[in-house]
Amino acid sequence: MSKGWQRIFIPLMAVVIALAIASVIILFIAEVPGPSTGNLWNDFWNQIGVRFSFLGRAFQAMFEGAFGSQFAWMNTVIRMTPLILTGLAVGFGFRAGVFNIGAEGQMAMGALMATIVAVNIPGLPMFVAIPVCMLTGMLAGGVWAGIAGFLKAKTGAHEVISTIMLNWIASNITNWAVTAPFATGSGTPKSPEIAVGAKLPILFSIEATFLSYGIIVAVLVAFVMYIILYKTSMGYEVKAVGFNPYAAEYGGIQVSKNLIMTMAISGALAGLAGTLESMGLYYRFYGTLTSGKGFDGISIALIGQNHPLGIIFASMLISGLRTGSNQMQFIGVPKHIVTIIQSIIIFLVAAERMVRTIMGWDRKKKVKDGLAKSAS
Amino acid sequence: MPFHIPEPSEYPHYAVVMKGIVKQFPTVLANDHVDLYVRAGEIHAIVGENGAGKSTLMNLLYGLYTPDAGKIHINGKETLIKGPAEAIKAGIGMVHQHFMLVGPLTIAENIVLGEEPLDSWRFFDLKAAKKRVRELSETYGLHVDVDMRIEDIPVGTQQRVEILKTLYRGANILILDEPTAVLTPQEADELFVVLRNLTDKGKTIIFITHKLNEVMAISDNVTVMRLGKVTGRIPISETSPRQLANMMVGREVLLRVEKAEKKAGEAVLAVNGLHVKDNRGLEAVKDLSFTVHQGEILGIAGVAGNGQTELIEAIAGLRKKEKGKIELCGKDITHSSPRDIRELGLSHIPEDRYKHGLVKEFPVYYNILLGRHYLPPFSKNGFLRHKQVYERAKFLIKQFDVRPPSILMLAENLSGGNQQKMVVGREIDYQPRCMLVAQPTRGLDIGAIEYIHRTLIGLRDAGVGLLLVSMELEEIFSLSDRILIMFEGEFMGEAKPGEITLEEIGLAMAGTPLAEVRKTEAASAGKSETTRVES
Description:
The complex is a heterodimer. In chain A, helix 4 (103-119) packs parallel to helix 6, helix 5 packs antiparallel against helix 10 and helix 7 packs across helix 8 (233-243). Chain A starts with a helix and ends with a helix. Chain A is built from 15 helices and 2 strands. Helix content of chain A is 75%, strand content 2%. Chain A is globular and about 75 Å long. A two-stranded antiparallel ribbon of chain A has the order 1-2. Chain A is mainly α. By secondary structure, chain B is of the alpha/beta class. Helix content of chain B is 33%, strand content 25%. In chain B, strands 6-7-8-3-9-10 form a 6-stranded mixed sheet, sandwiched between helices. In chain B, strands 16-19-20-13-21-22 form a 6-stranded mixed sheet, with helices on both faces. A 4-stranded antiparallel sheet of chain B has the order 2-1-4-5, with helices on one face. In chain B, a hairpin with a 2-residue loop joins strand 14 (321-328) and strand 15 (331-332). At the A-B interface, helix 8, helix 9 and helix 15 of A face helix 10, helix 11 and strand 18 of B.
């Protein structure tokens, strides 16, 4: 199998295995006492039959809950929007060999800054307000991640450590902002509502639920990232640094500049994810706006194999699973089953080597690599 | 007397008999019905180009691979070797090209590592370890100071430690993979004495090399391989380097590069009072000054690790300079970036092609782009122009005979020689005015070496100034117009290739200034005749 096909096959196989394992769990936890016939053998088969039909209904509910109606689709797409962007953020970092674990914090900072601007520009027309807010959010996320990039380039501080720490700082700053100087109302800490001009136009709505143009922005950004990665000199440099910084430096590429820039771009994408949530969904900043979507970006980048198109599909998968899990809950399957499915998928994709070994793609190469290393 | 192919009844006199060995890799048939007969107590050389299958054959013998077909007899007994552990049990030891030693541990500790003698409390018994290592070293005449740390001893001694390690594990058959690659000529000579000593004590040695003069100097019999098959088997007394080379390559090869006398032109690279530190922060280049002129190859001879790497990296802009000045074509490049230095006309064939020279995850055409990915015609307004890149890449791999000729293949799937041809092609395509050439033919086969040598001479004749660093003295001798000998970051002297002997250069490489070497020689002149090396 060619490398390209393997890249598609591995996540697909991971999904299939994860669903299979989830099925087994559902079969066991199904609370369906079948009618007792007094005959153990018949009871057993009844149980089996009832349980399998329960499993069928569970998956049907999940699928219908995610994609079964316009309303379901809409919910899935709403959830997908920020995930595409945080996935792209982390995936772009991976391409350059940096592990941006801080998309969560960058997303929060981006959303907060964009919201502050958006609240304070009443009366500004949409075609000015929207770009200004988006750029603000991207800038804030970019700067926040850029700090980690700068620290790595100048002092060698590992980005995993520094972005985690920046996550906490961002979390505290944003929480403080919406409880003290920028707070409004009571209950959940939140900011005032943003100006009308800064609200993203609505693409589609059913009753009170609406889908904004944010999804269009996210898909466009994915397309732009694809162009950057595969069609530009800059993408070439990013990938060269990611694969082999020594060769990149030898080829006249400034590794430290590239690192800072990659982190900044990655952070800008995460910042945009937060900004779109504020401008297109909540119309304000909530303390819980990010709620782990930045960390989801890591899983999505992994499942999508760091490819913009793969990331779109991975976001759809994850948001579909989550949206569908609500429906599944109605028929008695705990929502957490979806967390289990997601974890298994990530485990299998991350443990790619395992799949490769099972499929026998890697065996010879590994021996050869080992020898090449010992011989060179 | 031609090589005797033993009957099965004679196998007990043979340490190793490999019969009909076949090993198929996904894309290549690495061993195609290979037979190997190694008599007990002999030094048997296996020579062949890269990719000839000699390493595969030895890895099969050492149990790193299992053969698809064929049988292995050790000391007359058919043996199935499923892994290195079983190979060791069968009395086979292997010394890899790169040593696997632990720097901060002592020689004795390194040798017993993994099979440490224990005292009655089941703790490591250092005293017993030292005693056993001392005994071993005396038995085989491999003298080492067991208390020295590996990081403090020269490479030649480290190699002895590796050999002792295999002996400690009870090896009777020693496989040595390119053992002289890292040694000075003197150290190589000492190694040969050691090897003779070992065979006198009944050990059998299999010696992989591509240096024909070593084969001639040390081995009893030689097996020649090409493209996975054995192309010749001959006692050393009946062959010549030329014949071996023909068997290896399958055609006549030039063992010496033909090169016309040429007058050097203006200076292209001037280094003045350069000081550079190594990764540990120690001074690796100490106050070096030299000039490379147009149309000349300046060779730097020296044992690996004497500052050559740091010198080249400093010139290329990859390493910080502590003091001194570097000028390229009259412009100060002391503090310029690698990109600026390249743009001024310096290209660089790096010493370690895996680390610096290529991105193994990139396809060939992307590697050919490296360093010019932002320049027209390959880039316009920040966008890559794939069509131009493809065309250039296709042209270059054809011109430099990179095989297989596929620009979409990942660089990691090319063989070492073809990777190097790709790198050389790319660096020449810069049309440089000055070129840093480090280990241009390391690990390459004769065919590729010949090709790269001719290419370098071609550049010189076209007026490029080349600074050549190589551990292969032969390469330095046959390519250079002038030779500088480097030891511990300093030059031990300068000579023209026709005016210095291998012995003189070897002594200088070991740290005696050339002037002194010549003085002592003059004193003892007449006593011994030294061989002049023609260039």
